[in-house]
């Protein structure tokens, strides 16, 4: 049955992942190390306390740091809201598209995955922003997601980011980098 309905398998796999998070201590340092871009021990040796502390300076500083992004993604997974970051990253990647031929197809994929009503990873944006983005899709350009991306960035910055800075993932990470120094 699974090969005939691959989209259902994908959703089930996502649900299994989410349920798996619930069976573990979901807001823990171990969740962070599981998704680090490098091997966790090597990554932690490279990450200084100063760098990790700078993530609290601003949301954009956090997003611009490879390990900060990984830690924030791990945190969002514990809150079941990683689609916001994934959409923001997809938009950043989309803006680098240089091929006019690929632009429309990439835009359509992003729209269907994150913006359209009932999208598999639908982001939380208001009706006006969703409709403006839908109209922008008629003639996709590098800026067609700008308003939606801005709204999602603002939502993460005002809502998820302050919780991340208070989270066990972040505080454990800071403690781990400080322990390494002593």
What distinguishing features does this structure have?
about 180 residues, Regulator of G-protein Signalling 4, domain 2, Regulator of G-protein signaling 8, cell membrane, nucleus, cell projection
Q: In words, what does this structure look like?
A:
It is a single chain. The protein has 182 residues and is mainly α. 25% of the residues are buried. The N and C termini lie far apart (55 Å). It has one domain: Regulator of G-protein Signalling 4, domain 2 (Orthogonal Bundle). The N terminus is likely disordered. It is elongated and about 55 Å long. Helix 7 packs antiparallel against helix 8 and helix 7 packs across helix 10. It has eleven helices and no strands. It is found in: Cell membrane; Cell projection, Dendrite; Nucleus; Perikaryon. This is Regulator of G-protein signaling 8.
In short:
Helix 7 crosses helix 10 (146-166). The chain is an all-alpha fold.
């Amino acid at each position: 049955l699974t090969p005939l309905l691959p989209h259902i398998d994908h959703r089930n796999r996502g649900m299994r992942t989410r349920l798996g998070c619930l069976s573990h201590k979901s807001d823990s340092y171990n969740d962070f190390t599981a998704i680090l871009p490098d091997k966790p021990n090597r990554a932690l040796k490279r990450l200084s306390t100063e760098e990790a502390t700078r993530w609290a300076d601003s949301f954009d500083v956090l997003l611009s740091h490879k390990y900060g992004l990984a830690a924030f993604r791990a945190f969002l997974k514990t809150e079941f809201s990683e689609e916001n970051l994934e959409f923001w990253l997809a938009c950043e990647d989309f803006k680098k598209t240089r091929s006019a031929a690929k632009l429309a197809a990439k835009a359509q994929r992003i729209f269907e995955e994150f913006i359209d009503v009932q999208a598999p990873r639908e982001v939380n944006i208001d009706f006006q922003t969703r409709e403006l983005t839908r109209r922008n899709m008629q003639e996709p350009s590098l800026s067609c997601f700008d308003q939606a991306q801005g709204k999602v960035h603002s939502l993460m910055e005002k809502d998820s980011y302050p919780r991340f800075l208070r989270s066990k993932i972040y505080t454990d990470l800071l403690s781990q980098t400080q322990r390494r120094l002593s």
